[in-house]
């Protein structure tokens, strides 16, 4: 193993405006010049930060960004190395600064960043690990001649990996037969709605929380359900109000996001979780539990999912791996009783007979080798830092004009603006793309003296968070 590389030039001599860009471009130029060879181990972030007299977090951010671009690779328990497969060695040094600047700005401009309501930072995906896992998966399906139709319930390898994860990390005791792989949580919601519509034709109502995930609501409506809203507060879904609704309506299911409620980010308290399960048993309705970002809980151990608690026979648990890596990954899963899973299996044969064996095998390998867990731990630390920074930045810029209850987890903030809601705000926020994917009314609640927005922070660097919050301030207050 080559000795760790040591910086030869002082950052003060460079022309870039930020320490981040100075260091990032310095490392890229050292690679392109040949002075920093492929496979060379870099200094640890703490050591390099001490030598340069800069913040360690800056060094860590640079390493992570260059790893996402393909210049560096991180090896567990070994360190950070120059990649053996570099992005493009034909670039001259004059092009390097442009590459780094574009990766930090054009890939996530403030306008683009604000419209996300809690998506992962795709720049931090471990591309080398993904490439290796996909190569192995392709070789396996080719050698075993399994390029035909896959199991509509999902590959055995991925379901086994999911079974292990759910048991160890979420306390869910189930079997392979009770797990169905889907193309993201939205497909799971659609299948649940479709199955319930067929199995319970006389129950015409779905209960959703006062503010809820708009694509889920649209899915229920498209399956000819009527929607009832249950009240929501700082402890999550109001089970007392739900009990009143159940007395007067034939409810097929309650759709809820108990871990980090969408969009308000609050966690449902344990007493309400138990009460919800009790009501489900008494009134014989299903609970569709959308556990979309379970991995990202920062301040304590995550509260166990509803399906892991007693009397959870009527829970349809829907999870996703997209928040760990990227939305385009489209890998999710459903855990439910055999009747529900078998009905979903039949519907999948109508819409997704081919499946995605290569992706499922690749993800299974990453899970079995512990890479998924390592990447999740890394992302949890980064996103927690971004959460804290985003809260601090809002408070510094807006001062007493905002109120934020720091969420225990998740990838977004529910920001209360202590401002009179003006009609022109709708157009201002629309120009900032805050309502580009969801119904405007679901993200904003107008009042006489305040309103809310959901602010996704996970996909933004600290610099991008600052720029975006400043844009909000200029748009709403400094006009």
In short:
The chain has 3 domains: 94 residues, Winged helix-like DNA-binding domain superfamily/Winged helix DNA-binding domain (Arc Repressor Mutant, subunit A), CATH 1.10.10; 239 residues, Type I PLP-dependent aspartate aminotransferase-like (Major domain) (Aspartate Aminotransferase, domain 2); 103 residues, Aspartate Aminotransferase, domain 1 (Alpha-Beta Complex). 45% of the residues lie in helices and 13% in strands.
Structure explained in plain terms:
Strand 6 and strand 7 form a beta hairpin. About 9% of the residues have low confidence. The chain is an alpha/beta fold. It has a 7-stranded mixed sheet with strand order 3-11-10-9-8-4-5, with helices on both faces.
At CATH level 3, the topology of the largest domain is Aspartate Aminotransferase, domain 2
* C-alpha geometry: globular
User: Major sheet: size, sense and barrel closure?
Assistant: 7 strands, mixed
Give the CA-CA distance, first to last residue: 58 Å
Low-confidence stretches: 88-115, 435-447
Computed Rg: 24 Å
> For the record, what CATH class of the largest domain applies?
Alpha Beta
Q: Structural class of the secondary elements?
A: alpha/beta
**Spatial order of the strands forming the largest sheet:** 3-11-10-9-8-4-5
CATH homologous superfamily classification of the largest domain? Type I PLP-dependent aspartate aminotransferase-like (Major domain)
Integer tally of domains: 3
Count of DSSP helices?
Answer: 17
Average pLDDT rating: 83
| CATH architecture assignment of the largest domain | 3-Layer(aba) Sandwich
Q: How many extended strands?
A: 14
Percentage of residues in helical conformation = 40-55%
Strand content bin: 5-15%
């Amino acid at each position: 193993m080559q000795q760790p590389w040591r910086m030869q030039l002082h950052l003060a001599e460079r022309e870039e405006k930020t320490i981040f860009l100075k260091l990032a471009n310095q490392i890229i130029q050292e690679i392109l010049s040949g002075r920093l060879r492929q496979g060379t181990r870099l200094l640890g972030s703490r050591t390099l930060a001490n030598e340069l007299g800069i913040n360690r977090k800056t060094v860590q951010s640079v390493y992570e960004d260059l790893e996402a671009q393909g210049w560096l690779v991180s090896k567990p328990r070994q360190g950070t190395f120059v990649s053996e497969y570099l992005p493009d060695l034909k670039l001259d040094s004059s092009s390097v600064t442009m590459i780094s600047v574009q990766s930090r700005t054009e890939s996530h401009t403030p306008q683009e960043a604000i419209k996300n309501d809690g998506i992962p930072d795709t720049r931090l995906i471990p591309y080398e690990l993904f490439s290796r896992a996909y190569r192995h998966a392709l070789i396996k399906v080719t050698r075993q001649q399994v390029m035909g139709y896959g199991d509509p319930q999902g590959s055995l390898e991925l379901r086994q990996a999911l079974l292990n994860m759910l048991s160890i990390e979420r306390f869910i005791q189930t079997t392979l037969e009770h797990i169905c792989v889907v193309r993201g949580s939205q497909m799971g919601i659609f299948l649940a709605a479709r199955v319930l519509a067929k199995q319970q034709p006389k129950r015409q109502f779905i209960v959703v929380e006062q503010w809820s995930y708009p694509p889920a609501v649209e899915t229920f409506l498209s399956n000819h359900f009527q929607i009832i809203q249950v009240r929501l507060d700082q402890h999550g879904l109001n089970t007392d109000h739900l009990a009143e609704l159940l007395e007067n309506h034939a409810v097929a299911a309650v759709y809820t996001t108990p871990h980090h409620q969408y969009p308000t980010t609050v966690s449902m308290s344990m007493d309400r979780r138990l009460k919800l399960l009790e009501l489900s048993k008494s009134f014989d309705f299903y609970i569709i539990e959308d556990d979309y970002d379970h991995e990202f809980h920062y301040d304590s151990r995550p509260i166990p999912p509803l399906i892991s608690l007693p009397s959870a026979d009527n829970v349809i648990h829907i999870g996703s791996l997209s928040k760990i890596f990227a939305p385009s990954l489209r890998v999710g899963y459903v855990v439910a009783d055999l009747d529900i899973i078998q009905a979903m299996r039949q519907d999948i044969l109508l819409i997704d007979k081919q499946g995605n064996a290569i992706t499922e095998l690749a993800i299974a390998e990453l899970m079995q080798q512990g890479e998924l867990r390592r990447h999740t731990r890394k992302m949890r630390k980064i996103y927690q830092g971004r959460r804290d920074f985003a809260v601090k930045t809002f408070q510094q810029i807006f001062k007493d004009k905002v109120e934020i209850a720091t969420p225990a987890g998740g990838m977004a903030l529910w920001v209360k603006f202590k401002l009179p809601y003006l009609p022109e705000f709708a157009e201002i926020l629309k120009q900032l793309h805050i309502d580009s994917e969801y119904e405007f009314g679901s993200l904003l609640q107008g009042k006489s003296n305040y309103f809310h927005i959901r602010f996704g922070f996970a996909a933004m660097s600290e610099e991008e968070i600052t720029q975006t919050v400043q844009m909000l301030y200029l748009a709403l207050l400094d006009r």
